[in-house]
Every structure is written in C-alpha cells, then in structure tokens.
Amino acid sequence: MAKIEMRIQIPEFKTEDRSTYSRGSPVYSPAVGPKGSFQCRLSVYPAGTSLAKHRIPLSAFVEVLPPESISEWSCEGVKVSISLLSQKGEVPRTKSETFTFSNKTKDRGWHDLFPGDDNWHLWAYMGSDGEFWLRAEVENLPFLEARSGNSTLEPFRHLDFSQELAVITFRLPGGQLFFDQRLLMARSEYFQRMLTSDEWAESRSKEVDFSDDGRVTLKNLSAILRFILTDVFETEDLETSMSVREVADRFCITSLVERVDVELKEMLSEENVLQILSAIHGSSGELQTACWKMLESDGNILANAPEDTLNALIARNPSLARKLIVFGWGSKAKRARHQ
C-alpha cells in the first residue's frame, strides 16, 4: 500500500451541559478523515475520567479509527493538539504532545486536559449552560491507499464484463433514462436488492417505474447516474442539491449523500438553514451539526422565519417541528436569563 502522511482537523465540538454527565461518561465527536484510511474523533469526558485529579476535571482524547481492512496496526510519531475554546473572549488553551497509536492503544490524550494554575480558571472556558467547546488537530497520521485504487469506484473492480449487457429502463415523468444494470448494482445496495431478488418485478422486467413518484425526476436521476459513472457531482442550486441528496439516500448511495452534504454546508445560510435542516433531519454528521450551531448562534432565525417556510417544515417533518418548538422555548429562556 502507498503511504503518505496527512493532517486531520476535527472541527469545533460542543459538549452538552457538564452537570448532566457523571464521572467516566464520554461523548464523541463525528469521525473525520478519508474513507478507506485512518480517521479520527474526539472522545470527551465533561466530568472527567476516574483518573482525573483536578477539582474541576475535564478529560479529552483523540481516538484513531483504522480502516476495516486492517486489524494489526501502529502509527508512530503522531502529533495531537487539543484546544479548549472560550465563548467569553478568552484566548484558546491548547495542549500538544506526540503519541504512538496502535490497535492496542487507539486513544491518546489527557485525563486532566488542563489542570489549571494561578493565572486562569477552567470556569472561564465553560459556556453559560455548562458546556465546553473543543477542537483538535492530528498530524503525521498515515494515509493508506490501495495499489488498485481505494475510492468510491472500488466496487467496479469486481464487475464481470463477460456477462451479457442488461439495460435498465427508468420510466419517469416526462421521459425515460437507460443505464447498465451491472454499474447500477455495483454502486447501490437498493438496486442490487431490487434487481437480484425474485420478489421484485423489476428483476424480471428490467424496468423501474418512477412515473408516479414525484421525488424522482429526469434531472436528479441524471445527476445520480452521472455520479455513478464519474464520481463527480456538480452543484447547480439548493433545490436540485437537496433533491439529489434525498433520492441518493433512498438509493443507498452513501458516497453521493456525503458529497452533497459538503456542497450544502458551503451553501448554508440563515435564509436556508431551516430548509436544509428539514431535508437532512434524522441523519448525522457535520452538516446537521452546522445547522443547529447556526440556530443556536442567533435565536432570531427561528423567530423571524417566513410562515410558508414553517408550514412546509411542519408538513414535511413533524418530529423536527416538535424539536424546534422545544429548542425555541429553550433559547427564549436562555436570553431571559442573560438579560
């Protein structure tokens, strides 16, 4: 395997109210890093581990997650930096050290992230609701790439081109699309099940009828089929991107969902945050975290949302609507306490 060194930045990660955690109770940030290689995440103990000694304990570690393909591994000379951020204007506090990670020791860090001294206090870095904000950076972690090319195109390696070509016909409102069944099954678990099971009529007819399904259109399905062939997705506009994401998620094309999420995060604004959150609610990852963080930063976003936006959100996602109501009351109570 080819090996190069990489640096991974773990975005800002917020714990909940510190008082809700007991000693030794961890919370984890989303994992970041390239697929098929080493990834990282923060494991934070807001009330400290059992080995923490400071009177206001805070423990934090970086955990290295290896690719599923290897069981025995070791990464030496990996530099880890964990920063404690302040929401009160204090200078960030950073702690750094070089560690060795392995399958026997996957997480390294500090039981007392900052034991404190005469010049500063941990309370100054705790939010008004008892939370902490942390950020981490990991350097000199190996990047693994298989010689055969470890990418989202990897499933194509196992295609048997001696098989007779089978064309799948998609019937859609306004027209038809045609695609190679082998390529489709290689990139989508949804179509793999559909086209190999006798329980599905599509496996016999080689036709998939979306003519009465308003969610699948010529435009978004064309974008999905182009991605299957080229591994490229080009953002056109917010509506198209969310439409492609919804259908790609339904078709179990995870790599495209993740790609669209990156684009949507770049497009995220106060004007569209509720629209995006409604489309992705129930998923996990950086995009959903960014949406909630934006709402937390400005309580007026929800209060000033247009009525048609709120009506559409309630109709599309009642569970999110209930969560936003609770969130809105909580934000109102926080502002009242601060005033």
UniProtKB/TrEMBL annotation:
<feature type="domain" description="BTB">
    <location>
        <begin position="166"/>
        <end position="237"/>
    </location>
</feature>
<dbReference type="InterPro" id="IPR008974">
    <property type="entry name" value="TRAF-like"/>
</dbReference>
<dbReference type="InterPro" id="IPR011333">
    <property type="entry name" value="SKP1/BTB/POZ_sf"/>
</dbReference>
<dbReference type="InterPro" id="IPR000210">
    <property type="entry name" value="BTB/POZ_dom"/>
</dbReference>
<protein>
    <recommendedName>
        <fullName>BTB domain-containing protein</fullName>
    </recommendedName>
</protein>
<dbReference type="Pfam" id="PF00651">
    <property type="entry name" value="BTB"/>
</dbReference>
